[in-house]
Amino acid sequence: MGTDHDVLIAGGGLNGPALGLALAGAGLSVAVIDARPATARAQPDFDGRAYALNIGSKRLLEGIGLWPALAPLAEPILRILAEDGRPGEAPSHLRLEFDAAEIEEGPMGFMVEDRDLYRAFLEAMGRAGRLHHLPGTGIVDQAVGPGSVEVTLADGRRLTGRVLAGCDGRASGTARRAGIGRTGWGYGQTALVTALSHEVPHGGTARQIFLPGGPLAILPLRGNRSAIVWSEADAAAMAIAALDDGAFLALLGERLGGVLGQIGLSGGRFTHPLGLSLADRYAAPRVALVGDAAHGVHPVAGQGLNLGLRDVGALAQVLTDAHRRGEDIGAIDVLRRYERWRRFDATALALGMDAVTRLFSNDSTLLRAARDLGMGAVGRMPGLRRAFIRQAAGLTGELPRLNAGQPL
Fold first, then answer.
1. Cα–Cα–Cα angle for 104, 82, 270, rounded to 5 degrees
2. Mind listing the pLDDT tens digit for each residue in 175-185?
3. Which of 161, 168, 198, 240 is deepest in the core (most CB within 10 A)?
4. Whole-angstrom Cα distance, residue 316 to residue 167?
5. Model pTM?
6. Is 2 exposed, middle or buried, given 0-12, 13-18 or 19+ CB atoms closer than 10 A?
7. Using CA atoms, how far apart are residues 339 and 288, in angstroms rounded to an integer?
8. DSSP string of 125-148?
9. Which residues make Cβ contacts (< 8 Å) with residue 17, sequence separation at least 6?
10. Are the beta carbons of 32 and 58 closer than 8 angstroms?
């Protein structure tokens, strides 16, 4: 059966365009379908969102041609500090510290603002041959046939492809229409997200302060600015969100324990409920799930986008290799190669972050003592510390070629 495209991609956030560019660069024809207008997230005003891209993700972005535009806008992560803390107190003197000098690959990662990353994707999709970007219309129906999948768009158009890739988030319509269920739970926490300007230079240091209400991440941005992801119990978070800017900064400054000196807002303030959401399957006939559509995780380790971009690298490799061998890229045995590759790894990491969140989001004296001793012990073991660094940098496990810095 003839098709309009080789691959239809539902979702134009970040994973969808990345997958589209990777596949188009390998010679497949792609449509990226995004319910939002094209410029919705590329505005010049900073909205507080930023991502910690590990080395594997940076390599993938290099491979699909985005990194030259992003490099001048990215802030290298040279050091990571994990510290136990209490409100109103300086962070514990027992800490876990990771330094980029302990690995050969350079910085452990890079902080990139959402607006810069999304704009780079928009520009790259505009230049790409074999990639058709359809913003401002979503998918409202999908139907799988013997040799193709057909989608109906909100504006009435119909498109056919050999594979439909669901890059449409935790509430994935692609997964729901394919009959793929989900397992998950809430943490009773809400993330307060913003960006700060501050007096004390960050020095390329990313901090994670574990407070009784939830982790507080301080992530370095260009200039004397940092992105903040502050997790608190739902009721407390809603009360904090309702404060005026001055009261909000005073309370946040107390939580920070003075590590940034004087602080001020450098962007809007946003809230996001936190939970874990895992798809029961990553593949169905002519359908594959990517990123949050497959696994929505807690932001405690900043790995959500990195997990998604590893999915992108794996699915792009599976589909490209199958295409070059003359296989039907939408056949279920092809798509299950991707599922077998990614599902165990992503689920293990998601559940590991779940365990860390539960272990650290409390004020138990016994658990605090155990946490501090554990962090101190790891800090004194260079081999184990280096293994943690390589894991955080996205350099372990079975890396897709793009994430390993190799051509697709």
1. 110
2. 999 999 999 98
3. 168
4. 13
5. 0.92
6. exposed
7. 8
8. HHH-TTEEEEET--EEEEEE-SS-
9. 32, 121, 122, 124, 125, 133
10. no
SS3 string, 324-338, reads HCCCCCCCHHHHHHH
Angle in degrees, CA 256, 71, 394, rounded to 5:
70
Instruction: Kindly compute the dihedral angle of the four CA atoms of residues 62, 294, 168, 6, in this order, to the nearest 10 degrees.
Output: 70
Residue with tokens 């301080």: 218
Q: Please tell me the distance from the alpha carbon of residue 281 to that of residue 175, in angstroms, as a whole number.
A: 9
SS3 state at 125 = helix
Separation between Cα atoms, residue 163 and residue 15, nearest integer Å: 16
Count how many Cα atoms sit within 13 Å of the Cα of residue 69 in the half-sphere of its side chain: 16
Q: What gap in Å lies between CA 24 and CA 229, rounded to an integer? A: 34
Distance, in Å, from the CA atom of 199 to the CA atom of 176, rounded to the nearest integer, reads 48
Instruction: Using CA atoms of 198, 200, 206, 207 in order, give the dihedral in degrees to the nearest 10.
Output: -90
**Angle of helix 304-324 versus helix 332-360 axis, rounded to 10:** 170
Report which residue type is found at 64. Answer: I
As a whole number of angstroms, the distance between CA 173 and CA 195 comes to 32
Q: Model confidence over 219-258: pLDDT tens digits?
A: 999 989 999 999 999 999 999 999 999 999 999 999 998 8
DSSP string, 382-399: HHHHHHHHHHHTT-SSS-
Instruction: State the greatest distance between any 2 C-alpha atoms of the chain, in Å, as a whole number.
Output: 66
Q: How far apart are CA 142 and CA 123, in angstroms?
A: 28
378 and 40 Cβ atoms separated by less than 8 Å? no
Distance CA 374, CA 107 (A): 25
3-state helix, strand, coil in the chain (%, to 5): 40, 30, 35
Q: In sequence order, which ranges of 151-283 are alpha helices (DSSP H)?
A: 173-177, 234-241, 245-256
| Angle, alpha carbons 343-143-315 (nearest 5°) | 30
Cβ count within 10 A of residue 239: 12
Contact 335, 281 (CB under 8 A): no
Residues 332 and 184: their CA atoms lie apart, in Å, by 25
One-letter amino acid for residue 245 of the chain? D
